Amino acid sequence: MSRATNETIVHLSGSVPPALRAGTSQRDVIYQMVVIVKPGLRLALFQAARHYHYRMQRLLSFWFALIGLACLWPAQLLGADAEVCAVCGRPISEGYYSIEDKVTLEKRHICKECERSFPFCFVCGLPADTNAPGFVQLPDQRVLCARDAITAVLREDEGVRICNEVHDEMERLFSRYMVFPQTNVTVEVMDRVKLQGLFKLLGNDYHCPNVWGLTQTETNRSHAYRISLMSALPLRWFQATCAHEYGHTWVGEHVAASRRKQLDPDAEEGFCELLSFLLMESFNDEAQKAMILRNPYTRGQVDLFVAAERTYGFNEVLDWMQFGLDSKLDAEEPGRLRKLAPAPNRSLALTPEGLRWGQSPVPETLVLRAIFWDEKHPRAVINDQLFTPNDQARVRVGKTNLLVRCLQISAEAVRLRVVDTGQEQTLWVK
Questions:
Q1: CA angle 326, 331, 332 (to 5 degrees)
Q2: What is the CA radius of gyration of the chain?
Q3: What is the mean pLDDT of the segment spanning 116-134?
Q4: Are 39 and 6 in contact (CB under 8 A)?
Q5: Beta strands 224-230 and 185-190: pairing type?
Q6: For labelling alongside 380, which of 63, 109, 205, 225 has CA 20 to 30 A away?
Q7: Rounded distance, CA 322 to CA 333, Å?
Q8: What is the pTM of this model?
Q9: Distance between CA 322 and CA 166 in Å, rounded?
Q10: How far apart are CA 125 and CA 130, in angstroms?
């Protein structure tokens, strides 16, 4: 074992010689070599060998553990979310369909069995589990999954009530600018087959094929409106559709026949969608606002109307609807919203159904045209401007305009102040 009395051969290819491993357990290392060690270096070399052995052992343990986790991840971690069917909730064993949820706009993984076995929900577009509590089958063959059936407007009396509530909310929201007809409006709720048949009968083929509402104007003796709404829409969809259809009634009441004839159908639809958009904005419903903007059937007009309202204000949008020179809004020249017909051609005329634009000249003085009396929410029309108490707005007078503040509205008179001069006056119903 010795070459000289002061040298020791240490074998690092197997067991450490007894002289160097007294009091320690036998350990093996992963390589083979022979080292001739001076007596003074024996202890240092042995300690270095032990230190290297422990580091190698810990490093190998780490890598074996990491490999074990990697083998477990695909089955236990990744598969937990990505490979469970969104309809039945069971793990997906062999392939799946990726289908967009039309409500949340998220991709859902659907197993082949659910895709083959269940009908598709009218609202979200996913297979609707017919065995789930809350599943609804409608007489017109539409189905609603349990989730979307919760807020669906199914009964006609419920739909009429909600539509009337939307009318009142729009009256409040747009009280400074608009009056929506109500006493000459009839609301009905019907299934999809009947509503789409009504559309085909009236020849409104340019509308979205999945139409949710329709407004008809009856003009035999006086203007009256019939609003038809599709049943089983989710609440927010139904409310937005009601607002849209009331927009059509406002156009019928407040836009002259010659201007309505000039308006492009897409522009009128875009304007009505703007009203729906603003109502949903008042409800803080971002999802429904986004849905309105995604709907392509106005051919981009709704986007232009929303941009115009943000840039120029709602009152100027109404002016364009009533007096604009163009048939629709132009994306290349948005400023043409302010190109209006000459002032002498803009005027108000009263009919039993409400205020309508006619051909009489703009008054040369402030004139009280109408009072819509309600103890809680009175409104009045002065020349061509709608006021509620404490409103301030510019009123056309002859070839100019005056800044007017409405101080008080009673059942028979309106007290106001001309802001520029401070002059107050009372106007009476004639």
A1: 95
A2: 39
A3: 96
A4: yes
A5: parallel
A6: 225
A7: 19
A8: 0.65
A9: 24
A10: 14
